[in-house]
Records
---
Amino acid sequence: MRVVVDSDRCQGHARCVLILPEVFDSDDLGYAVVRDGGRVRAEDEAGVKRAAANCPERAIVVDG
Amino acid sequence: MDNLLGHYDHLDGEFAADPYPVWAEMRERCPVAHSDLYKGFWVPTRHEDIYAIAHDPDTFSSRKVAIPDDLLSDGAGEFEFSAPPITSDPPFHTQFRRMLLPAFSPKQIAGWEPVTWRIADELIDAFEGRDRIDGARDYAQNIPITVIARMLGVDESERDTFTGWLRGLVEVGPSNPEGARAAFGEMLAYLSAKIAEHRALPAEDIITFLIDTVVDGESLSDDDLLGTCLLLLLAGIDTTWSSIGSSLHYLATHPEDRRRLVDALDDPDSTLWSLAIEEFLRAFAPVTMARYVAKSTVIDGVSIREGDMLLLPFPAANRDPSVFDRADEVVIDREANRHLAFGVGIHRCLGSNLARMELRVGLQAFLRRVPDFEIADAAQVRYAGGQIRGPRELPLSIPAKSGASR
């Protein structure tokens, strides 16, 4: 599974960073960035889906 | 019932006590309603419409964000309320907001958490020997007031005057426009003096940060500077105070959920607290914004004309059953929770990370030391209406030993 944050949509709600800091980090302005180039380890897949389901801007795109 | 007959009144105390059935009926029967009060305004109540409006700042401008729009003025017409970025549109908004964002990022806000714990614990210390407190006045309101006073660099010696004064301003509020305007004038004078002091003698705080801010090659005008200081003060206070208060109200009346949260306090693996905080934010979202219609448009088949005003009740969106299962229930372990408590789109609450931290610390500190409490007198619970809804009086019975030990 891979994940990207659509930076045009992200408004820095930081919900993903709270749900799964192993995968999502925030930059100096508070916008979300994905760690490790967006590769998702198997144990983080459920958490990534949960982050996507909670993103108020629908900015998290999950592939695979 | 008047709410459905063209007289929707968000300032009405009875409505404020329980707006949810009204919103449910409006969503069902008239999802883009109109009110003839306060010079007239529209009220969408569906999640989908509120979401779309918030994402269309070209059509729905933030040049006015309050209904009625003359609440925040000095009454003499000398100060036009302008508090960017909240009252501005792109492109100015984009640049201005960018300047402020770093001060409110998750990492910066984490630095304020230990201070917030200390503030909360000191408030609980003061419960010692009392078996009745007011959850709003003695606790919830003091957390954001004290935190923001420190962020703005208000001197220790002035803090009591400052907080007492702010309490007056926010409490008097929309129910007494003249009183609010008088208080507002005092606040302007106080902040103007503060700004002048900071110009003469820069300090390491937000006021100096704002004075030094350059947008588009220009420093902020005096009105913008004043407005933004006010925004930081006002936007951060009764909002968070309302969220903490509403959550305490819920916890006082739902002992099972309270016990689950008390049990989870010492369990580092539990995700219950983070889920519960988002659920409290969803269910008791305090903030309704407003927009000025900059271009005529159609929402859900209803024609809206340029120059109209419109309320954006995020709390109503958060109870829309087409988006949330059991929308009117508080489900503290709700997993899918795309709530709009902090708004959505380019005006997402700048202070959301701060507010969320204050809400969590405020509730955790309280439950740690006061695990058992109930409403002392339901008849005395009072909610303020308007665009920031939450309890202003919340009498609670607590064990008298609560304040004694940490």
---
Amino acid sequence: MALFTDSSRTATAATPARAAGGGATERRQGMMYDMTRCIGCQACTVACKEWNDLPVTIHDAEMKGPSFQSLEDLTPSDWTLMRFTEASWDDAPGGMLLRMRKDACHHCGNAPCAQVCPVSAISQMPNGAVVIDQDLCIGCGYCTSGCPFNIPRLDSATHKASKCTLCYDRTSNGLEPACAKACPTDAISFGYLDELHQEAERRVANYNARRPAGTPEAYVYDAPDLEGLGVFYVLNAPVTAYDGRHTLPERPAMNLAISTWKRGFKPLGWIGILGATVLAAAHFRMIGAKRLSDPATLPTPMEPGYKEPEEGSNG
Amino acid sequence: MTNHPVDFKNADAILVCGNNPAENHPLAMRWIVEAMEKRGAPLIVVDPRFNRTASMATHFLRIRPGTDIAFFGGLIRHAIEKGAIQREYVAQYTNAGFLLKPEFRTATDLDGIFPGLTLETLDGNTVKPADGKAAGVDWAKVKGGKYDKASWAYDLYDPKKDAAAAEQALATARAEGGSSAKVEPWGNLLVDRTLTHPRSVFQQMRRHYDRYTPERVSAVTGAPVEELTKIWDLWIARTAAPEKTGGVMYAMGQTQSTIGVQKIRVITLAQLLFGNIGLAGGGVNAMRGHANVQGASDNPTLYNLLPGYLKPPTAAQQDWATYLKETTPPKLGDEKQSLNWWGNTPKYAVSLWKAWWRDAFDEKTGAGYEYMPKLDARSYGFIDLFHEMQKGKIEGLYLFGMNPAVGGPNARQIRVAMRKLKWLVAADLYETESAAVWKPESDEGVDPAKIDTEVFLLPAASPYEKGGSFTNTGRWIQWRDPAVAPYGDARSDSHMINEIFWELRELYEKEGGVYPDPILRLAWDYTAQGPYVRTAQRTQEMDLEAVAREINGYALTDFTDEKTSKTVKAGEQLPMFTFYRDDGTTAGGDWIYAGYYSPAGNVARARDGSFDPTGKGFYPKWGWSWPANRRIIYNRAGVDTTGTPWSADHAAITWDATAQNPPDPKTGKPVPPGKWVGDVPDGAGGPGAISPFIMRNEGVGRLWGNGLADAPFPEHYEPFESPVKNPLSSMQNNPVVKRWDNIEPTVTKIARFGTGDTEKYPYVLSTWRLTEHHLTGQMSRNARMLAQLQPELMIEISPDLAKIEGIDENDLVAVESVRGRIVARARITPRQRPMQVAGKTLHVVGMPFHWGYKGYVTGHVANDLLHDLYDPNAQIQEDKHLLVRLAKPTRADLDRYQAILAQAQYNRKSGREG
């Protein structure tokens, strides 16, 4: 479902209610995954593969579990998947929780993957979508290790990283992403992020007022430390209750190494370069250019007294 | 269904029992979510297994498979005990107050059976239960039974026929009723609206369900007493008051049982008692298992129905007059109040015969009646066909998008039977398991050299390559056009049928034959390009709009409708079924569809999703809903006799007493003010003019009914192959179950009356579906993305059972029933849990039925495990409860399994694009 207030369905320069997010230049768009409404039908998974024309590989005995889970993990050609969790929960109806979590790129406002990319192949589009430029990508894999959600996947054959694009080819043309379009229960909503957050608050309040006795409360899962997630959750189980093999960080943030590099060493590097330049200029001005001995007086290789220049010398 | 999926948003509570909308009707689920969000409606899931719907539920109750009648029977008893029924609704709009014949007895009186049962033993003798009770019968020797329903009848009051007898009946009834009852004649019936007369339906029902105490229901269902009463109390609190209503949804979890029809009846009883039928947000809602199943029963592809639910002629009905007399029910009850809509049967039957044979049928003499085949005493249901095939009596089979080799019950038996065919045509998108039934991978030991079946695989058009209409589960008919032309040589089904018809017709024309008239005189002018002309390619598609026009009905000659004074010219479309006539002036293929291709054109094309004047999601300009574009049927029951809704919040219709009406077109006299607003009301007239359940010949909802073969009040019987003795009576199984003892015992081991062999087969197996696959998997296991999402046949096992059997997650497990042995991947999940039934721990396992030996992913056929006993009314198989055992697969099991997986590997490598 798309949540739009503008009838024109185009992003306008309206004042963003929340942090604009690193490179977003327009009113930020995104998605809400409302897991209180999700029925785990996996239509989103199919729609994603269909629209993005992602290849399908079927292996024998691929069923992985738990529950209805068959895809084990994200791959270069599986950009989204449903993670099923079965948790024992004595007071809940049936004594258990069956929870689904749609896993895909969160399009962070300040995206760590973009920060770590050494060749600037990852950038934020005007509406906030974080996309990987396949032509620029060198397949170093920094984005995968930098991502707090472990999302981008490296193709071992093509040496390119890939992930959800927020269907930028659709959203930049006034359409909602394929997964949101396919969702039968509006568990996936696309729209302006500020409006989605209003809707999320409404839904959380509504769910908590009617939630089954003995079940956990719903809440919004976001990442203020990353200038807000472009794709955020409404979850109805504690983060720790979800499948242990693929836990969500309780408070997603930039990896310390990245922030140290970006905010510490990288600026220091610039200072170093700048300092070196200044020193060089000062040296040139105060001492002048480096003078070589008069070439006419130097022996040539054919003459006696000639010495091979040593490795590494600037002679 | 009485309501429609969008209408779930109007419910105060939703009871999901025997279906799984989150997995099988995801789009219906969005309206359930809306009711939960906007109205705080609880979602109650009653199921043997915690499924994806249960993940959303506010309440979940685990019951043993096949015990739904006990659950609802207990609810009925609980509600009556607490005085929680909607008394005014029940007294006015149901047959609760109608008096039954003195001879009638309930199953409480007769220990589980009803009066009139005659049994046939395996050695061919006829016996009657001693004292009419079930206890004294040696059921091991019984083959089947049949009810003589003479005592299943209302006490009639017919002074016109015999005034003295009528007065006597009235006097006797009054004397028996005591001081509280007030027996009055209502037409030819005797009614006590105080519902206290001991012979009234209500008191008999109360007596019948007296046994269904929470303790006994708990013993049957395996659900603890306190949980049962908690759910019953919640349902009563949310739906019993007049201003509240709730909807019950069901699907194959209820119906696929030897007591399937009675399970639905008991839901109807409960909903009538709470006054939940005829209101927005209420109803008894069948969630159909396929996009057009509703359409397939309205315009039936069934042997025992004609279009519009007319009855086909039987061999005993040798002439037209007898046929009409015997298929038109007599009116019961008040002359004016009881509409007895089926009294119009002659109009619909004449128009149907006229539509099919036009002038070759004469409604006055009945000439041409014989063109319609007549049913003999045998049944021609799904399984009958395969049994006849096995005996060599059926030579050929034409399958349109049908895959019985996977989808039928006791599927291995079906495959054995199919290999005896001389020819087999499969029109489908892919080579189905049925089309490949002769191949070695189909079963162990199959040698193609020894099978004489000639198989034709015809490429069929996919749903998006052909036009026509779908009728959804809410009776909405929606027309669509093909998106693309059929791929390659593929043809639509209608195209193939058109070709077959003309080919057949030509053969009959040329060669005569035993009885060519029904074909030669059939009015078949649907060919798109005008009259059918044979060409070299002979490819002519039908004009489906022409078929639609005929289904709707049209005038054969000019006539003027008496009621509206409207004149319809010859060839014009009929605006409504009230224009159908029995004088031969109209032709119509299906009276309930009259109006969907009206004089205004193809109304089923309508797509106005913004027009919703009531705000309740009726969308009257979206598609067209039979009958008469009515979105909630029996909506007159939603208002009291003054036209005031029981609840404005759930009103489908309301009487606006101030609305001015134009003068009568015929007489010119002024018409008093007053008009119905909202949905299209059932039947004509203002508030209280007619009884709301117009399709019943007594005009009211039936708490008691004599129309079914097995019970006038729904009674719990155990499944065949049950692990326990029936705690509610001595009658273990449905005594009139439909069974077959007359075929060679090759594969089938026919289940006998009694409990199952729990020594050998200790666990209950239930089969079901997954979101990711469609029916027998032909369309989904051949789509790579869906195949990837659920690649393997699985068996769901509880952690407790896994421990007992020593099974680990992802192990291969052999599953064996009396009839077969298959291999599946173990999925150990707490969604399955053992339950306590009759003091013993009972383990339930579950399997989806989508796998076969063709497609990108393959697996064993789960239906090989099922038996093929049928419900005696609808002839539906028992898929949801049978006994199995689990074992470690042997080398032979694994070899068979690998052989089937190899098929998928080949298909994936062969480069077909999914």
